[in-house]
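To: structure desk
From: M.T.
Subject: fold request, one chain
Message: Could you run this one when you get a chance? Sequence is below, nothing fancy, just the single chain.
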Amino acid sequence: MHISDGAKIILNALEDAGFSSYVVGGCVRDYFLGNINSDTDIATCAMPYEVENILSKKNIKVVETGLKHGTVTAVLNKTPFEITTFRSDGEYLDSRHPQNVKFVSDVSEDLKRRDFTVNAMAYNDKQGVVDLFGGREDIKNKIIRTVGDPNERFNEDALRIMRALRFSSVLGFEIEENTKNAVFNNMHLLRNISAERIFAELQKLLCGKNVLSVLDEYRQVIGVIIPQLEPSFECAQNTPWHMYTVYEHIIHSVKYAPPDSVIRLTMLLHDIGKPYVKTTDENGRDHFKTHASKGAEIAADVLKNLKVSNEIFDKVTTLIKYHQSVENVNDIKIKRWFNKIGQENTLSLFDVRIADLKAHNVNKPEVKKEIDILSELKNQALELIEKGEPYRVSDLAVNGNDLIALGYRGVQIGEKLNEILSLVIDDKLENSKSAVMNYLKKI
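Reply: Done. Structure tokens follow.
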């Protein structure tokens, strides 16, 4: 197995001092998957203070990052290496944190406490691979399986439920039957986990290649962390434009979106308002008027509960609010959208609407035509950005001082600048100082 030069230096330093040490976890798993892993974690029988003493003599910087859990971080050539003393965990009382941590001398005791077999392998050049629980076999068979009893593992740390779903989505692995049953038996424990940790796992899950299957099969788990989605699970859409229930449409749209966590989160929530505004006419056809604005309201509550950043909150709610506003593809004025929600959000809005349409009834030729037009409009938007086309008052060739010189005062200045901007955006007035000043003098 290939180990980075930095990891080798640290392992050799610890081994030469008489302390058995291994690279562990994700980097070993990714080696057998054929993936490159930039993070290398090291486990050792040395205590944190011993690690610090040994590495400082080699002029390797060590930062105390988690002494309570036996962890320090070595920084070598600007690359961090997390080094943790072998440990076994005490009893868990809150479905997340062990009451105490006991440091041990044997790597096998350390590997027993880990979550899944694929993450419970260790390696050093002297012993080779230490695989006590069949991790390599599970990688070969594309299986996610807990180390030991899955109910115990999930009761110890309920976040492992989300991690199981995340690994299934990202790696394209199936969750083994006993582990799967334990996911459903213990999913209520996710309510004990901090929103920030759940959201971090959800973001990774949403960008996985197996996301559609995971969101479908484990919808009840998604319902625990986002209960506002539950009404969509069985919400029918009796309309020629759709071929799925609301939730099925949602998860297909997630799959069709670019693998960007914010865009995919938008797709997960974009039609969350539909069950709340659904009406059915006398012909049995369903309608979902105002679902975009209602969805933005509900999504705001979801995002607050997940404690997302202000930046993510603003972007997702904006995209959901306006995702139906580009329904008339023949009447989209790109620079107007730049002005309304900004350039980046406009590009994202096209991505959102295209993913949305791909999860519609694609047998309707109108749907494919709309997708093609939106794709072309996105290309046009990129060209406008490249050219630096004006779309804000600050982009105009004139400013307030120019208008003051012509005699404009107070609110007149802002009103007139917005009028000029509107003409420039619609290509009715050239954005040059001479053209704008001539226009103003004429009126």
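Reply (cont.): The radius of gyration is 28 Å. Let me know if you need anything else for the meeting.
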